[in-house]
Design brief:
heterodimer; A: mainly alpha; elongated; B: alpha+beta; ten-stranded mixed beta sheet; two-stranded antiparallel ribbon; 9 helices; 24% strand; globular
Chain lengths: 164, 373
């Protein structure tokens, strides 16, 4: 009888502990989700700009024009690839798709100018540092004139991290 | 609710009860702090104790910081444009011993413990170079966009027989010309347009004399619609019709208004300010730099002549996808390229150092819209 009662008590304790565990886990998940959403919004909006700023810093850190050109070209190409990948996602709205098109066109123009293609005069070696600043400033301005949603911005960042 | 709380606490073990109760207390305190009716103000000096003469200059400054305002300088250092602007305006306020300065910093709405909203505006009031009051406020109170700011302005403004030289500065992103939501990251459905800004100016002027100088540190603010909206309340406007780098206009000429405006010649001061801002921007920026001084009385003829065409264009473009339209120099559109379009404007322009428009030699000083091909 005692053993039965003890068994029932331990069963009740076990159920209560289980309920506590679920509550605590649920609370942790909610807090984590809040933190991730907050961090995600900030990351999505800022990291595209930081990406090009990092490229500009690397360009200025090297004295070899060939390397400068390669860094810029790689960064522009990686971003274009990321935009292509994001555009094919179902999560991206039609309005964002149009914005991404404009962003891609803008990146293509910069690649053309760097290489001297499509009617552009090739950026001279001594202008590469200034050109890297131009890319940063253009992208910061594009961020305000070309509207893309938070989800799209987050996708771009995720894909850029995967590609790089 | 009571039984729910009871069950929640009852289910917790004794060891958990103490920290849980602590957490609830903190949350409750946070909630009361964020929703309380007590104004979290910090008044440094009581009003009216600082001197016998009324301020000679009155500066109202609105800094929008509720959006993406990150930029990098040429050294690669990251800055928040609104915070940099706030620091500069505070310096202006501290350096002007004969001015009163109202600073409104509109910040992104944040939540304490992810739940309780905290005040998203900060107001600073300086008089004679000293900080008199600092107060946080809710930005979403009232019908009109700038109701909270104007309520504070009316409460603190110096009353006196003399009419001070008045300046109004706005820092932010491009101000929409038509009703467009999404300007504020914290209030996605809130609409902000240039008419709201004009209404703020109207309330600063109290329907009497115009503001002497309005400085718009925002992209694409030199449009016929924007200048026309502000024209009833401003004598001179300084704005950028093209993109404006987030480092904004340099404010150093404002730091000693007793010297810069000694002759009380606002026109000369506006040109000096614009030249200085242009030189600083041109130094550090690779993209196009355009700074224009609009002598409002003299541009009104041009504004009247293009008013109908421009409004018609805005109506047509309103229904389009934003990605299918873009800004352009009004001079590129025959509907606006009229003989009087340069009347009353002083245009300082340097083309972009790279890109398709690097050989564009001049800018009309007016920005319009066009459909992308």
């Amino acid at each position: 009888m005692h053993r039965y009662r003890a068994g029932r008590q331990s069963g009740t304790n076990y159920t209560m502990k289980g309920a506590d565990m679920i509550k605590r886990t649920a609370l942790r998940v909610i807090i984590m989700m809040c933190v991730l959403v907050y961090a995600g919004i900030a990351v999505g909006q800022d990291n595209v700009q930081k990406y090009f700023n990092d490229a500009a810093c690397k360009v200025k850190a090297t004295s070899d024009p060939l390397q400068k050109r390669e860094i810029l070209s790689d960064k522009l190409q990686d971003m274009s690839k990321a935009l292509d990948a994001v555009q094919s996602s179902r999560l991206v709205s039609n309005a964002d798709r149009a914005g991404l098109d404009r962003l891609k066109a803008s990146l293509q123009e910069k690649q053309d100018e760097l290489a001297g293609a499509n009617g552009y005069a090739r950026v001279s070696d001594d202008q590469l540092n200034a050109f890297s600043d131009y890319v940063v400033q253009e992208m910061e301005q594009a961020d305000r004139t070309i509207t893309i949603g938070v989800v799209t911005a987050l996708l771009i960042v995720i894909i850029i991290i995967l590609i790089a | 609710m009571k039984s729910l709380l009871h069950r929640f606490f009852a289910s917790a073990t004794h060891g958990q009860r103490v920290p849980m109760a602590g957490a609830v207390c903190v949350a409750l305190a946070a909630f009361l702090c964020s929703c309380g009716s007590i104004r979290p103000s910090r008044t440094a000096t009581p009003l009216g104790d600082e001197g016998g003469f009324p301020p000679r200059y009155s500066i109202v400054c609105i800094i929008h910081g509720d959006g993406g305002y990150l930029y990098h300088d040429a050294r690669g250092e990251a800055h928040r444009a609104d915070e940099v602007a706030l620091a500069k305006v505070k310096t202006v306020a501290e350096q002007n011993a004969q001015a009163e300065v109202f600073i409104f910093h509109e910040r992104r709405r944040k939540h304490l413990l992810f739940l309780f909203p905290v005040r998203d505006g900060t107001f600073y009031y300086y008089r004679y170079g000293r900080l008199i009051a600092e107060e946080s406020y809710w930005r979403d109170q009232g019908q009109a966009r700038f109701d909270p700011e104007m309520e504070l302005y009316d409460r603190f403004r110096a009353e006196g027989p003399s009419d001070p030289t008045r300046l109004f500065l706005y820092f932010g992103h491009e101000i929409p010309e038509t009703g467009k939501a999404g300007y504020d990251a914290s209030y996605k459905s809130r609409v902000f347009r240039v008419d709201d800004l004009a209404d703020g100016l109207r309330r600063v002027t109290r329907d009497s004399t115009k503001i002497d100088l309005v400085v718009l540190s925002a992209c694409f603010s030199g449009t016929p619609r924007t200048i026309a909206a502000l024209a009833p309340y401003a004598r001179y406007v300084i704005a950028s019709p093209d993109n404006l780098h987030l480092s904004y206009f340099d404010l150093r000429p404002l730091e000693r208004l007793d010297i810069g405006l000694r002759e009380e010649d606002v026109s000369a001061f506006a040109y000096a300010f614009a030249h200085h801002a242009f030189d600083r921007l041109a130094e550090d920026t690779q993209t196009a730099v355009t700074v224009v001084v609009y002598d409002v009385d003299r541009v009104e003829g041009f504004l009247r002549s293009v008013d109908r065409s421009y409004d018609h264009a805005l109506t047509i473009l309103a229904g389009r996808n934003p990605a299918s339209i873009e800004h352009c120099d009004c001079a590129d559109d025959p509907a606006y390229a009229l003989p009087g379009m340069n009347e009353g404007t002083t245009v300082l322009y340097r083309p972009s150092r790279f890109g398709r428009l690097q050989n564009k030699e001049n800018h009309s000083g007016w920005e319009c819209w066009r459909l992308l091909e």
